[in-house]
Description:
Layout: E1 15-19, H1 21-30, H2 38-41, H3 57-60, E2 78-87, E3 95-108, E4 112-123, E5 128-140, E6 164-169, H4 174-178, H5 191-196, H6 206-221, E7 229-236, E8 245-253, E9 256-263, E10 268-277
Amino acid sequence: MPVNPDAVGLEGEPSRRSWTSKDALLYALGVGAGTDELAFTTENTKDTPQRVLPTMAVVLGGGGVPFDKIGSFNPALMLHGAQKIELFGEIPVDGEIESKGRIGAIWDKGKGASVELISESTDLATGKPLFRNTMTAFLRGEGGYGGERGPATTFELPDRKPDQELRYETRIDQALLYRLSGDRNPLHSDPGFARMGGFERPILHGLCTYGFTGRALLHGVCGGDPARFRSMEGRFSKPVLPGEELTVSMWVDGAECRFQTKNQDGDVVFDQGILTFA
């Protein structure tokens, strides 16, 4: 059996990651922040201390996960199905974390296997947990082994107009900028590689779409204050091409916001979104 369902609960080796003010600025530019968000894109603007976008947790964390213990699978057939971040404090402008990861679940979905990977990151300067990443990977062709399918999920958007909508345009070279934060997969930069994957041209990183969406939630719901941003989760439903528009629709209920991101054609690209905030 290529995928090992008994790997649930296994842990990887701790890993460390450090970052600087420049890394935080580059990430912010990579997810579309600009001259109207100087707290995230500059470090020397008068009366505007630099701060970090909460979704930068996805490029800083995620370490220590034991991919090698899942079993054998074709990495080219792996899809990023869902992503969740939980923040326990505001991310500092520079710092170092230690991340410990584990396999949270493996489900048999028939056409593939769904694997939940959890990574918890501690701020080494304070010794306190800083954030947690939960990634769901879908391994095409690795299902059908008779395992459990996992719990059914239900998600509904409120039957009313969104309380807030924000629209962003991605740049035609957005993926080239975002990849400098760490993900150098040629699917997002090499036209020939993208065509082999069935795309007309390189696609935008899913986590870049995640970052654009997170910016909309930060400004639309949290008043631009990263300290109010608690958690964000959702599922990737369709690839985005650089240059496309993204519209994030938000429905607020107390300290929770349900959201959905669509492209300029009305196609849902990020779905089942839930934000919690203070």
